[in-house]
Write a structure and sequence with these properties.
The structure holds 2 protein chains of 2 kinds. Chain A is α/β, with parallel strands linked by helices. Chain A is built from 22 helices and 24 strands. In chain A, helix 3 runs antiparallel to helix 4 and helix 13 crosses helix 14 (248-259). In chain B, the strands form 3 sheets. Chain B has an 8-stranded mixed beta sheet, sandwiched between helices. Chain B has a 3-stranded antiparallel beta sheet with strand order 10-12-11. The chains are: A alpha/beta, B alpha/beta. At the A-B interface, helix 20 and helix 22 of A face helix 1 and helix 8 of B.
């Protein structure tokens, strides 16, 4: 294998699994160390810079970082990254003074953002401090979009949303609440320098089976029902409730029902329990609240009497796999089952809807009625119009919307500075030795064997009585410190300097995970089989450095390295060093633009 | 050294031996020797050898004297018996323990100071008697604990870290072990585990006095230009006569070797050593030739490594003394005092 080029920012980026998996590439270990040090405000600002909504995401994020966490490969459970983010938000000091200052001069460019959700607010956050005049249009009176309308208050209180949307709006955003944009043509005619569409995926899918029309009064579309609950238009539901669907919306629906008078609330899903789209922790929370989840049941008919819903008939199915491994649900050969109920909530998916974009407005749509959007620049076929969040590529989640927002802001900033927006900026990268003394590092390199700590919950009896009372209480300072200690500091990299090595084997002997091997170099597939411990995880790189006196090469399997630094502590010549690798995604602003050589 | 204990986590794909242990289960506490010490590599080699042999830790007694080398038994086999004895007195403590309980595996761990100076006599007599043990000398040619004076194994003409030239002749422990009648003699290098691990395995399996001289560079006081025990010097002057593969049990040897290049040595416990000859003329069963070979190469400044000598049909001290098969410490009163009639019979035989 060739020598690993650690000057390529992608190499070490991949080693920081959590940060790499995060769509916004938030420097996770960096802020977890700050939390451990009690620097909550600093941890909050690291997050705020990267993902704009730390308090909101710390309660609701889909956490792509956690399944990626190295701790899963080393032990079992990932670090509770998401809930540690909430700790930063909960315990921070007043950070208003640390927010960006208004631009000294407006640059005269006007940008319209349609929809006031996470994608648009991210674009606003990135562009306003640069001097852009940004106007946000939203049909609702307050900013937040689906964050405010669809996430139940017992998971995310209004106060948190208000605080974090205000940080953005207070930068000097012109927010036009209650103003729905009805026509793209009309908007285009207003001569904005750029338009960003962040209108989400606002339409809940319906279920067209017999009885749907007749029993309509007691059948509700999940996301519409959730937003009515959130605005206080709905405050109770029948005693027996069936929720159809297996996603996170279904989980929010059933848990909300439990709080609005639903005593027998049940979730019914078509697929198997394990294939449900809902995050495992959301399923757990629902079950914890006494909500059973029935699987492999396909709704066939709504039963009704005198125009009133009486229940749902389901066909029992089983999963069969064809030769290509594709799953098919086929009749299980059991009698149909009837579930009596008073109300049904349909949460079987969300769709995009752009009734307000005239198809002749100069924006191309594809065969699925989605706008054609460039995956890197987020530009549509109209160069002035950008899409982001769920509006761009269909329903995802908040953190993806934030990531889209940052990229769209970069595109808008580059475009309005006359640059080629397909040339994307490189991330800012810093690599620094953490050595403080002979066996002293500027990070805590002792490995904690603790299992993942559980977030304390409010007593169920109290929680189920009030839909606005937050269920999760969050980690306290003590628990947060313990959980933060589980982080393996994957951003502190093992850096090897071959010319200093005397091949004494000390690092090989001390490495608790058998990551290091000195052997003859070879071709990767073959090399992976003859390391101290076999390197079977092909998704994880081998770090290769040759140029040793005996002609061998140092091969390190990055897979399960604990970043404990014992190799560096044991190295008599300093050939190993622990160096912190900090990667920050470049946002809109002068650093995202191509440097121009000034005239001499 | 490091202040941190080695984390308990281990690689999920770590192989397990017949007992279900990984090599991590054969570790001791974390080493407090200098970072990069050759002794730590020997520790790792002993751990690997015991893991590969699927040795039950409670069946091992590790006995040492005083010195950097003699600290190392703390760092391996944390669940075995141990005795950190007086300076140079490891061989007599080991001999006593072995006489009392012949069922254990005895690892004698010593250094060049411990065995070639203060304990030179002890070293000689334990080998001479053929005590069943693996006697490992971690040989760095220097008194590390007292800041780097020449030890008795430092070569004449080699330089200390401060630039002083050694004018005394050196003791070649392997050559002396041959002369004293050790039935297994090897030399290896801490920086070459591929050679060292099989040698340790073979020594443990050997019945009789097995002696291994392991050159182990002292990173703090003997790893400079002018030293003959430095990583660089040993690598440049290493003259390996053979390489070993140890095959445990009475399993058929499946590996195919080129004819004429491999010699099969059956061991007492049923294991087999496949000896890959690097020097075609080297005769591993010829004690006198081995001595001559060592001296000849030492004169040229070369360090001969590998399995230097192994005696066919070797026996140990218990064999020489005709002791009973039951360990002496397990004999009870009834067996030790068989009664008046047995005494009468014995007395009659002496008349």
């Amino acid at each position: 294998m060739k020598n690993t080029d650690i000057s390529d920012p992608q190499y070490f980026h991949k080693v920081v699994d959590c940060q790499y998996a995060c769509p916004a590439h938030t420097p996770v270990p960096e802020y977890i160390r700050m939390i451990a040090a009690g620097r909550y405000g600093d941890a909050y600002m690291v997050n705020w810079k990267s993902n704009v909504f730390p308090g909101i995401l710390g309660r609701t994020c889909d956490r792509p970082c956690e399944p990626a966490c190295r701790r899963v490969r080393v032990e079992e459970e990932p670090v509770a990254i998401c809930r540690l983010k909430r700790v930063a938000a909960d315990f921070k000091e007043d950070v208003t003074a640390r927010m960006p200052k208004p631009a000294a001069r407006r640059n005269g460019k006007r940008v319209a953002l349609v929809g006031g959700g996470p994608a648009s607010l991210t674009v606003a956050r990135d562009l306003v401090p640069l001097g852009y005049s940004v106007t946000v249009f939203d049909a609702d009176a307050k900013a937040g979009g689906m964050i405010r309308t669809q996430i139940p208050k017992f998971r995310l209180p209004d106060s948190v949303i208000d605080e974090e949307t205000d940080y953005v709006l207070n930068l000097g955003v012109d927010f036009r609440g209650g103003q729905r944009i009805e026509s793209m043509k009309a908007l285009l005619a207003q001569d904005w320098d750029a338009i960003f569409v962040g209108t989400g995926a606002p339409r809940g899918r319906d279920l067209d089976i017999p009885g749907r029309k007749e029993a309509a009064a007691n059948i509700h579309i999940g996301i519409d029902w959730l937003s009515s609950v959130s605005f206080g238009h709905i405050s109770k539901i029948g005693r027996r409730v069936i929720v159809l669907g297996g996603g996170n919306t279904a989980m929010d629906c059933c848990r909300s029902s439990r709080r609005l008078g639903g005593e027998e609330v049940q979730v019914v899903v078509r697929s198997g329990f394990d294939e449900m789209k809902a995050s495992p922790w959301e399923k757990e929370d629902a079950q914890h609240e006494g909500i059973p989840i029935h699987n492999f049941l396909v709704p066939k008919e709504f039963t009704h009497e005198n125009g009133k819903l009486t229940g749902v008939i389901f066909e029992k199915v089983k999963a069969e796999f064809d030769a290509k491994g594709r799953r098919k649900l086929v009749n299980a050969g059991e009698p149909d089952q009837h579930f009596p109920c008073d109300d049904v909530l349909v949460a079987v998916g969300q769709e995009n809807a752009f009734p307000w974009i005239e198809r002749d407005a100069g924006i191309d749509f594809d065969e699925w009625n989605m706008p054609k959007v460039d995956e890197k620049t987020f530009q549509s076929s109209n160069p002035r119009v950008f899409f982001g969040g769920d509006a761009a590529f269909g329903p995802k989640n908040i953190i993806w919307a934030v990531a889209h927002g940052h990229e769209a802001a970069v595109s808008i900033d580059k475009m309005l500075n006359g640059e080629d927006i397909t040339q994307r900026p490189l991330p800012a990268v810093e690599v620094m030795s953490q050595k403080m003394g002979i066996h002293e590092w500027s990070y805590d390199n002792e490995i904690d064997l603790d299992k993942r700590y559980k977030v304390p919950h409010r007593d169920l009896g109290i929680a189920l009585k009030d839909i606005k009372s937050e269920v999760e209480l969050g980690f306290d300072v003590e628990l947060a410190l313990k959980e933060a200690g589980r982080c393996l500091n994957c951003d502190v990299q093992t850096v090897f300097n071959a010319p200093l090595c005397i091949e004494c084997d000390a690092c090989v002997d001390i490495c608790p995970m058998d990551c290091i091997t000195f052997t003859q170099n070879g071709e990767e597939t073959e090399l992976r089989t003859r390391l101290t411990a076999p390197a079977k995880n092909l998704a994880q790189a081998l770090y290769v450095q040759d140029g040793l006196k005996t002609g061998r090469a140092m091969i390190k399997d990055e897979d399960v390295c604990l970043h404990c630094g014992l190799c560096a502590e044991r190295c008599p010549t300093g050939a190993w060093d622990m160096q912190k690798y900090l990667l920050e995604v470049t946002h809109a602003g002068s650093s995202c633009r191509t440097p121009r050589r000034s005239a001499a | 050294m490091t202040y941190l204990a080695k984390p308990k986590f281990h690689h999920p794909g770590l192989p397990k031996n017949d007992l279900g242990y990984t090599h991590r289960d054969y570790e001791g506490t974390v080493s407090t020797l200098c970072a990069g010490c050759g002794h730590d590599s020997i520790t790792a080699a002993i751990i690997q050898a015991c893991f590969e042999l699927s040795i039950e830790p409670h069946r091992v007694a590790k006995i040492s004297g005083i010195g950097c080398s003699s600290k190392t038994p703390t760092y391996f086999l944390g669940n075995s018996h141990g005795f950190n004895s007086v300076h140079g007195r490891m061989p007599s403590v080991l001999t006593g323990a072995n006489l009392a309980n012949r069922d254990l595996i005895y690892l004698g761990v010593s250094g060049d100071g411990d065995s070639a100076s203060i304990g030179f006599g002890q070293f000689a007599h334990a080998l001479r008697r053929g005590v069943n043990m693996a006697y490992i000398v971690e040989n760095n040619g220097v008194y590390g604990l007292t800041k780097g004076q020449f030890s008795a194994t430092a070569d004449r003409g080699s330089k200390s870290k401060r630039g002083v030239t050694n004018t005394d002749n050196s003791i070649d422990l392997a050559a002396i072990a041959l002369q004293l009648g050790a039935s297994f003699v090897a030399r290896s290098f801490s920086g070459d585990k591929q050679q060292l691990v099989p040698i340790i395995k073979a020594a443990i399996a050997h019945k009789g006095a097995a002696f291994i001289d392991v050159i182990s560079p002292c990173v703090a006081f003997n790893n400079h230009a002018g030293s003959t025990k430095s990583f660089d010097f040993v690598r440049e002057h290493n003259e390996a006569v053979n390489r070993l593969d140890v095959i445990s049990g009475r399993m058929p040897i499946e590996v195919q070797y080129e004819p004429g290049k491999v010699e099969i040595v059956e061991q007492h416990d049923g294991s087999t050593i496949a000896l890959r000859k690097l020097d075609a003329d080297y005769q591993v069963h010829d004690r006198a030739a081995a001595q001559a070979f060592l001296q000849h190469h030492a004169a040229k400044g070369q360090i001969v490594t590998g399995l230097l000598y192994v005696e066919k049909d070797a026996d140990d001290l218990h064999g020489h003394l005709h002791t009973v098969d039951t360990p002496l410490n397990a004999l009870n009163e009834k067996e030790l005092c068989p009664g008046q009639s047995a005494l009468d019979k014995f007395n009659a035989s002496m008349r």
